[in-house]
Design goal:
By secondary structure, the protein is α/β, with parallel strands linked by helices. About 35% of the residues lie in helices and about 20% in strands. It has a nine-stranded mixed beta sheet with strand order 5-4-1-8-9-10-11-12-13, sandwiched between helices. The protein has a four-stranded mixed beta sheet with strand order 3-2-6-7. One of its GO terms (molecular function) is fructokinase activity.
Length: about 325
């Protein structure tokens, strides 16, 4: 097993590569906004799945990314693998299951602003990735290994997820975790809380939303720094970021904490905004793996990430709306910093 010194040595030698692990699926989004799923007259298909969105987002911003996961050996599965390839995401870590379908999700933003999800995963291919199917060489190349919590819900994917984390960590990767809570997929609230927290202390970097803080702390105030630091900041954590939608984000490290204002735009569809934010943050980190030690540089990177999220809400869908670096740099001068 690698010593911490050799792990850091590995990190310095690597070319920046963010490897994203988890689910990739087809989102079906209503052709009109502000209606429930039952009221929607028609749906458009859009590629989705948070880890895959992040991989595409990072590539759009000009950094190197890869995706590891499983899809069905069906038309949708081939479409998703091809979308990664078109977006210059390394897709050699994708596996195809001939016995299960690619996951589907119907997603809508109702008139009251609440998102509504209906998932088809009984089981879907992403849940059936086995540890033996992991692309170990790809994992060992990762300077950052990014994942969510949906891949923890069912075996065999849970064991594959845990093994992938271990391989990446031993090879010197920074571990990045976005819980991305989707309660309808978990057997119960308690199972979700326990599952999400089961790998909490292994992460180097965590991105979380206000709603997720409330959920994980059983209703405590998500705006209270003491709640965040006492309940969610663990000794191995290098950076904890709390996203607040259009209001921006807060950041916590061992040495400092603060907040970065959001970038104000007129929102059309919030799908993928959090993933775009993570893409921006991890792009900054990939180019400077000690970013969390320099508050000025960290703030610049988080403002960039806020702008990535803002641009994404101006268009419908997640992957189609993810910005290029040029688009982000165009919007940043307009932001009063």
């Amino acid at each position: 097993m690698s010593t911490p010194q050799s792990a850091n040595g590995n990190r310095k030698e690597k070319k920046p590569l963010v490897v994203c692990f988890g689910e990739m699926l087809i989102d079906f989004v209503p052709t009109v906004g502000g209606v429930s799923l039952a009221e929607a007259p028609a749906f458009e298909k859009a590629p989705g799945g948070a880890p895959a969105n992040v991989a595409v987002g990072i590539s759009r911003l000009g950094s190197s990314s890869a995706f590891i996961g499983k899809v069905g050996e069906d038309e949708f599965g081939y479409l998703l693998a091809d979308i990664l390839k078109q977006n210059n995401v390394e897709n050699s870590g994708i596996r195809f299951d001939h016995g299960a379908r690619t996951a589907l999700a119907f997603v809508t933003l109702r008139a009251d602003g609440e998102r509504e999800f209906l998932f088809f995963r009984h089981p879907s291919a992403d849940m059936l990735l086995h540890e033996s199917e992991l692309d170990v060489n790809l994992l060992k190349k990762a300077s950052i290994f990014h994942y969510g919590s949906i891949s923890l819900i069912e075996e065999p994917c849970r064991s594959a997820h845990l093994a992938a984390m271990d391989i990446a960590k031993e090879s010197g990767s920074i571990l990045s975790y976005d819980p991305n809570l989707r309660l309808p997929l978990w057997p119960s609230e308690e199972a979700a809380r326990k599952g999400i927290m089961s790998i909490w202390n292994k992460a180097d970097i965590i991105k979380i939303s206000e709603e997720e803080i409330s959920f994980l702390t059983c209703g405590k105030d998500p705006y209270d720094d003491e709640v965040v630091l006492e309940e969610l900041f663990h000794p191995n954590l290098k950076l904890l970021v709390v996203t607040e939608g259009s209001e921006g984000c807060r950041y916590y490290t061992k040495n400092f904490k603060g907040r970065v204002a959001g970038v104000k735009v007129k929102p059309v569809d919030t799908t993928g905004a959090g993933d775009a934010f993570v893409s921006g943050m991890l792009t900054g980190l990939a180019s400077n793996l000690n970013l969390y030690e320099d508050e000025k540089k960290l703030r610049e990177a988080l403002l960039f990430a806020n702008a990535c999220g803002a641009i994404t809400v101006m268009e419908r869908g997640a992957i189609p709306a993810l910005p290029t670096k040029e688009a982000v740099l165009r919007i940043l001068p307009k932001v009063a910093s």
